[in-house]
User: Fold these one by one.
Assistant:
Number 1:
Amino acid sequence: MHGVNLDQIGRRDPEHYGGITFRQLEQAIDGFAGELGLDARFFQTNSEGEFVEHLHRVRDVADAIVMNAGAWSHYSRAIGDALAFAGLPCVEVHLSNVMAREEWRRVSVLEDGCIATIMGKGVDGYREALQALKAELEG
Ligand code: DQA
């Protein structure tokens, strides 16, 4: 699940997010999932309400969640509540190292609902997230 402004990577802040486009990011994630024998489904929106509504129904279409909620990660208690409601294992991913950026990015209101947070590893962070979720699902 990709949140707000993630659809614009490739065009925004290349020093933080690299030059990869959103389409290339999803293709890379799809490839990582395939290598691990997982089936990836994608969802991106810039609307917080749509993101929450997807979390309300995600249990019907997925066993686990990889989430980069963008800036919402730092303040949206509504998404945190919806993630708890979803009740699926989740790994939070950030392409950039949010701990080395502005103060407000160092807070995650989603981390309590996640089994792990991966940051600063670019696209490879998504591979790590999928590996962690696969291990979690396999017990
Ligand atoms: C981000 C980091 C967030 O602070 C930022 O608002 C984003 C992207 C990342 O992937 O590094 O939109 O989640």
Number 2:
Amino acid sequence: MPPGFGRRDHDLLCDGVALADIAAAVGTPVYVYSAAVVRDRYRAIDSSFGGYPHALHYALKANSALAIARLLRGLGSGVDANSVWEIEVARRAGFDASQIVFTGVGKSPAELECAVALGVKAINVESAGELARVETIATRLDRQVPVAVRLNPDIDAKSHPHISTGLKINKFGVSMDEALPLLHALDRRPHLKLVAVHVHVGSQITSLEPLRRAAAFVVGVATDLRLRGMPIEYIDLGGGLGVSYDGGAVPTAEQYVTTLLDEVRRSGLPVVLEPGRAIAAPAGVLVARVIDVKPRDASSEFAVIDAGMTELLRPALYNAFHQIEPVTTNDAAPRRYEVVGPVCESSDVVGRDRLLPPLAEGDLVAVRDAGAYGSAMASNYNRRPLPAEVLVDDRQWRVIRRRQTIEDQLALET
Ligand code: LLP
């Protein structure tokens, strides 16, 4: 069996462990991750570079469970941290400051102060104002701070509008009108060291063309800067590679890296990538239990499960599709279900109009490809506790985060 999730007879397993056993022991809702899939997905990208110099900086925002971060560190990954708190997670997972790139469109002064003091590999700066703020701190501490400038290339990633970031109308990066004079002037600012040019045009990108164009664009800018004598050390091409949520074709890791290298190779510049979803999404499922089944219309029923937008926001926020399947199948004729969560919002739908074997109260379902931006985006709305998380590794499983309790929540309140 390939690593990850698959069936033995009627039961859905994660690397040999029955999801039903985990749910019986830990309760639901629970996220279950496959360490083997994380390894596989990381290595698929990493090995596609062949001998070409590169570094993968896993985007912690996709899933920053300590155990997942540690697993990636063991594989040789660095990280992309999007807040000082993600930097702290990276540190506790054992990453060295030199393995952290600090990204994000609104880094507070305190966050910048921390990153400068720590000496991260680069601060990926998003504006002229942010460059000035970094410079002020660097000057005060008398340090030279490595920075990458994130460019906004005005490229349409053709992903969901909420997660497309490369258009001029998006809040991200420095627009090209502004970027060149800003970059050219950097060699006169001794406390800033421009080490890279950065671009990230969006997430869940399923066509290679925008990624190729973004790479070509950054290579062009980096080459120009090098000709001016600026010591650009690498280019950072962000993340963005999509995964197949519905079984449709998406580019492979190898096609992705080959496409990027087609544009980059002539420059000889090392590449940094910040993949998140492509590594973590297929490595996780959300296991939930059916609470109620009730009629909806002439041809369908509601299946109310004990996980919803609080555990997995993607369907409600982006109308995202995640496959849903029963943990234990039966051979009865499928029925049509609207699979909904328990939250007081009509948008709390996990899966619309799904054909599933007949579901009954107490049955378990698995929501697939939920390893990225699942648990990471969970909330306490309706005072729902953050779900438990389990990691399966080499046929053993363990709880990597216990379920939050109401005491945990109320401990913050006075
Ligand atoms: N680098 C930067 C600067 C980013 O902003 C992101 C994602 C990544 C890397 C990683 O991108 P990935 O390889 O995962 O596509 N919550 C949304 C996705 C938001 C992505 C935000 N930035 C979702 O659930 O689809």
Number 3:
Amino acid sequence: MDVYGIIGNPVEHSLSPPMHEAAFRERGIDAKYVTFEADVDRIEEAFHGAEALGVDGLTVTLPFKHDAFEFVEPEESVRRVGAVNTIDFTESGPVGYNTDMTGTLRAFEHHDVALDGADAVVVGAGGAARALAFGFEEAGADVAIANRTESKAHDLADEVPGATGHGLDELPELMAEVDVVANATSVGLESDDSVAPADAWHSDLVAFDAVYTPLETTFLGDAKAAGAQTIDGAWMLLFQGVDAFEIWTGEEAPVDAMNEALRSHL
Ligand code: NAP
């Protein structure tokens, strides 16, 4: 039996186990997907231990995505992001991927939203924002980054080719001009706050929210009410898992079964 899992702290409420178990079942793969709550002070040992035990692959979640980057041989596109959320233990060593980034791009494709040539604003400058900003840029979008702490928006913009950094006060102006607005802050997580003013939305925008609890955040609700297209955060979660499954198994992921399993646990 193959063994996969998610490593983080905390991990007990992770939705990855039901999603990956459903995928293995659907494809008839004899594998188990388990949760590993690692000691934050012993993460390096934990990664080496997983490798020594013959674990086949890991999803890496907070707060270990940067530690994972240090542990693996990062796959090409991950080098700039500096964070790894998927490890494939191969015969030649652990290889690291960032499927938060590639999975979000697949979520946009799934919704027929073209990023090539689009103007996109990423709100936030933390880990999720890094994945989105580098991903959007790689997909051909012009990226603006707006963050509460403006200096962090400028720091991230300096790393992403062609990107510009802004304070949150500039968000309404940016929203009047761009095609895509992506919330990569934790605003709206289990609350009805939104990082974007309700009256800044219009029907030419596509709204994406990385937050998925609740599934319809105020950010997305306001966007929808103004006639904008919306993509919820569960699509990012789904497609990061879809990409991980395909990296680990080399098989096409059963997207519908994974989506059903995920949404039935939300
Ligand atoms: P993070 O690194 O801690 O970054 C948090 C960001 O939120 C920072 O830019 C911070 O701004 C901003 N922020 C926090 N409180 C704010 C407030 N009250 N007003 C304005 N901005 C505020 O977190 P992260 O890892 O990037 O995660 C961000 C969100 O994405 C979380 O809700 C997480 O659950 C979600 N996420 C979802 C997926 C998925 O698969 N759907 C994957 C990864 C993350 P400052 O710099 O000013 O502090």
